[in-house]
Design a protein that fits this description.
The complex is a heterodimer of chains A (133) and B (287). Chain A is α+β, with helices and mostly antiparallel strands. Chain A has one helix and nine strands. In chain A, the strands form two sheets. Chain A has a five-stranded mixed beta sheet, with no helix packed on it. A three-stranded antiparallel beta sheet of chain A has the order 1-3-6, with no helix packed on it. The radius of gyration of chain B is 18 Å and the shape is globular. Chain B starts with a helix and ends with a strand. Chain B contains four helices and twelve strands; from the N terminus they run H-H-E-E-E-E-E-H-E-E-E-E-H-E-E-E. Classes of the chains: A alpha+beta (133), B mainly beta (287). At the A-B interface, strand 2, strand 3, strand 8 and strand 9 of A face strand 4 and strand 10 of B.
Chain lengths: 133, 287
Amino acid sequence: MYKLTLLSVLFLTSLNDISSAFANPISTQLHVTPTRCVALHQGQTCYQLIDISWEITSQGSYCLFISSTKQALNCWQQNTAQHGTYQYDVQSAKDVIISIKNMQSEQTIAQMRFEIAWVYSQSQQRRSSWRLF
Amino acid sequence: MNSFYKLASHLFLLSAMLCTHSYAEDISHSVRGGASIPADQNGGFLDLGLGLTYFKSPLWGYPEKNTDKNVGMSTEVYLNINGRYQYEGFFIEAYAEGFNGFNIGYNFISDTHWSFDIILAPEHYGMGDEDDNQTWKDSNLTPREADFNLGLRANYSQPGYRVEVRVLQDISDTHDGHAVTAFIGKNWQKRNLNLHVLGGLAYHSRHAAEYYFNVRPEEQSEQLPAYDGAKGGLIANAEFGLTYPIKENWVWRGLYRYTKFLSGVTDSPLLIHDEAHILASSVSYVF
């Protein structure tokens, strides 16, 4: 059910993208370096200074978002093709989504996942136990 | 294997030779926040690495050139093995950089904070015994054999803090001595770097001290006078360590460890300093 819903959303989103593209061709590139952060343990906060860069070819009002905060990191208005960069210090225990939204259409025009990885998986909580062989 | 033995002879000898400690895993391992398995599950973990240690040994003849107070620091490459396997409460573990290199045991109580194990473990490693130490071979000293002990270890943990107490009795007929050790450790995180401090005391009984640190009249030489004053005594240990995740399967570890012989054998000719320093750095692959 979840997969079906997700597929539906993706399908509708892609239709929306296609219709938007025909009306107002948008070419957007979004890059993040590095692409992941490695913590020692699963569940531990991972810290990584990342460089986010983008290039958008169409005019409009845009904002840069990261899933760990509700507020936009950066917003701008552009009249011509423009590229930009933003440096952000990720502090998260789980993957974060970085996205650019067109604030007029409320449409996400680009997004990518910044992955939080770890060396040691989290152990389950130990249960209280006594042993007599 | 040779380098692992050398590690036992040096890294361990400095701090474990006359002192010891641990956790439901050895506290030196658990305080780093390394791999662990809940006590009620079966399985294991292993990481292998290479390290470089820069150390000042207190023991006469270890390393071979260490025969007077003027000998400075020594350097050695070592194989860093960290692993544990447990099944139905029984476990075997080896932590090359830990205060206790090797333990076999049975965990009979465990809960969120407490853990109690029955353990079999070497407490004092041999000197001049089954190694190629030419300094000992050229001396009149009789080799000192490694012991093997039966004991109990208790661990208490809270987020960020760990305490470990071990009580061990030699069952190998080497010296029939006993040892009691207590350690407390704290860890914290600074960005992706994991830091820890460990501090503790170890008491070693007269029998062990006499066996390893007395020099019998027939063993004396120009370099080593006879000595029969070894008594039970205390050793203090302190460690500061760092652990950094390089990649998902690679970990860097660093430590500085200080050991101070407070009493018991401080005037033995086989103890050329009453303190030891170890600086170690290693990179390991986590399987």
